[in-house]
Design brief:
By secondary structure, the protein is α+β, with helices and mostly antiparallel strands. It has five helices and twelve strands.
Length: 213
């Protein structure tokens, strides 16, 4: 039975409930069928249950389950949130001209480091929705729970992979050395995260390794 704090490996396919349109998957064949990015690595992922590695609704649904396949229905408020109408803004079209952007409905834009979707264009005014594109959508997740992860090195690797793909891990007793390209200002936060998720690790050291993988 899966418990909070347990590391597990899963495959999943995520759909918008009302249309059944696939918007995310770990399976290469489904990604190809839906014309997803070719350069992405479609493969099972390792998560730590209850630590927000995935959306809240799915995280909660996994607790108490067995290692097998499930289909979960996730309401919008536990997915990407309800749509906040205060995040739908009227933006002068002149701002787009300054960035050499031609505003058209459906276009995703980055405006002052905030991602939004253009909903309508009328004269000199453009309505932009800064909600997450899936806000307000109920979701369906088809999940295959593959195995529990017990190896400490594999657990640590799953956490570091969220930051960088270039690293080497050496574990001696309850100490760990990480050779990576992780910047110093991110190392302390990563140490805290590893110790919180894997309490048996007492000491973590970082060192630079340009060719770490």
């Amino acid at each position: 039975m899966i418990k909070k704090g347990m590391f597990i490996e899963i495959n999943f396919t995520a759909r918008i409930a009302d249309s059944q349109r696939v918007f995310d998957t770990t399976k290469k064949e489904i990604a190809e069928k839906n014309n997803f990015h070719e350069n992405h690595d479609y493969s099972p992922i390792i998560i730590c249950v209850g630590h927000k590695d995935i959306i809240q609704g799915l995280d909660e649904q996994l607790i108490g389950k067995e290692i097998k396949e499930y289909t979960f229905n996730i309401p919008a408020e536990k997915g990407f949130g309800k749509k906040n109408h205060e995040l739908i803004k009227l933006v002068p079209s002149s701002l787009f001209a300054q960035q050499n952007i031609k505003p058209v409905p459906g276009l995703q834009i980055n405006l002052n480091e905030i991602i939004g979707t253009i909903r309508s264009v009328s004269g000199g005014r453009t309505i932009v929705d800064f909600n997450h594109p899936l806000a307000g959508k109920d979701l369906t997740y088809e999940v295959e729970i593959l195995r529990e992860i017990k190896d400490i090195k594999e657990k640590v690797a799953s956490i570091i992979t969220q930051i960088t793909k270039k690293f080497e891990i050496t574990i001696t007793n309850d100490e760990i050395e990480i050779k990576s390209d992780i910047k110093e200002d991110s190392q302390e936060k990563l140490k805290e995260e590893i110790k919180e998720r894997i309490p048996e690790i007492k000491e973590i050291k970082f060192s630079k390794e340009e060719n770490a993988t």
